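User: Design a sequence. Structure:
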C-alpha cells in the first residue's frame, strides 16, 4: 500500500523536519561545540559591551601616542639641539610664536600640533624657551630689522621651514599670513624685494646641491626685483642729491671752510 506524501498533514511534515535537523546536529559534535563557543563569546560581548569599548579606545589611544612620539608630532622643542636630524634633512616646516626680533633674526617659541587628550599626557610642563631663527640666505640692514619689528610683533604666529642648523641657530625660510590675505608671505623674499636686505651665502647647505640652487635662484630673483625698481638700499639719489653730496665731500671746499672759520 502506497502512502501519498502530498496528502500528509502539514504538522506531520514540520515535525519530521525538526527531528531531522536535531538528528543532524547531534550527529556532528564539532559544529555543535563551535556554535557553543560563538554563542558564549557573543553573550560575553553583549554583557560587557562597555568594557570592550574601553579596551578598544585604550588600544587606539596607545597606538596614537606611540606614533606621535616616534615622529615627534606633538613634541615641543625647547632647544635647537632637540630637533631631530631627519627634520633638517627633510626641510620640515614648524609652527611658532614670535617673541622678539634680534640682530641675528628672530626668537620663536615652537608651538606643536595640539591633540586634546594626548598632548596633556605628553606635556612636560616646561617653561617657554624660544629658538633662535635666522633668515636663511639673507643679510638684514638696520631698516630691515625695523621692518621685521613692525610686521612680526610678539605673539605673531609664523611657520619656519628648516634649512640647516648651526650651533644654537636655525637657518630657515620664515613665512606668515598677512591680515586680509589668504596667502602667506615669505619673509626672506619680502625683505629682499623691498631692498631691506642683501643675499648672503646659505649656511649649512652644500653649494652644489639641488636645495642650494633652488634657494639661490629664489632669493636672487627677489633681490633683482628690488635692484631693478630701485628700492631700499638700491635706491639711487636724484641729481640734486648727488650734487649736494659731491659738494659736501669736496676736499677743497672743506679746507676753505676751515680757513674761513679761523679768520673769524
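Assistant: Done.
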Amino acid at each position: 500500500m502506497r502512502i501519498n506524501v502530498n496528502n500528509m498533514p502539514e504538522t506531520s511534515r514540520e515535525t519530521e523536519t525538526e527531528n531531522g535537523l536535531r538528528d543532524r546536529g547531534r550527529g556532528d559534535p564539532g559544529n555543535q561545540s563551535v556554535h557553543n563557543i560563538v554563542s558564549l563569546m557573543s553573550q560575553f560581548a553583549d554583557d560587557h559591551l562597555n568594557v570592550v569599548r574601553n579596551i578598544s579606545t585604550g588600544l587606539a589611544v596607545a597606538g596614537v601616542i606611540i606614533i606621535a612620539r616616534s615622529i615627534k608630532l606633538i613634541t615641543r622643542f625647547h632647544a635647537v639641539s632637540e630637533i631631530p636630524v631627519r627634520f633638517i634633512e627633510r626641510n620640515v616646516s614648524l609652527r611658532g610664536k614670535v617673541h622678539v626680533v634680534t640682530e641675528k633674526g628672530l626668537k620663536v617659541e615652537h608651538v606643536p600640533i595640539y591633540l586634546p587628550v594626548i598632548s596633556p599626557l605628553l606635556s612636560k610642563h616646561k617653561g617657554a624657551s624660544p629658538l633662535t631663527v635666522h633668515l636663511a640666505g639673507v643679510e638684514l640692514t638696520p631698516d630691515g630689522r625695523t621692518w621685521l619689528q613692525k610686521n612680526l610683533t610678539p605673539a605673531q604666529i609664523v611657520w619656519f621651514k628648516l634649512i640647516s642648523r648651526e650651533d644654537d641657530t636655525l637657518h630657515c625660510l620664515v613665512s606668515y599670513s598677512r591680515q586680509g590675505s589668504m596667502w602667506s608671505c615669505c619673509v626672506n623674499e619680502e625683505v629682499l624685494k623691498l631692498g631691506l636686505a642683501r643675499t648672503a651665502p646659505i649656511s649649512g647647505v652644500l653649494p652644489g646641491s639641488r636645495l642650494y640652487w633652488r634657494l639661490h635662484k629664489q632669493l636672487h630673483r627677489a633681490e633683482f626685483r628690488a635692484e631693478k625698481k630701485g628700492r631700499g638700499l638700491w635706491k639711487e639719489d636724484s641729481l640734486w642729491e648727488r650734487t649736494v653730496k659731491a659738494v659736501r665731500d669736496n676736499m677743497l671746499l672743506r679746507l676753505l671752510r676751515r680757513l674761513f672759520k679761523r679768520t673769524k
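The longest strand covers residues 157-166. The chain has ten helices and eight strands.
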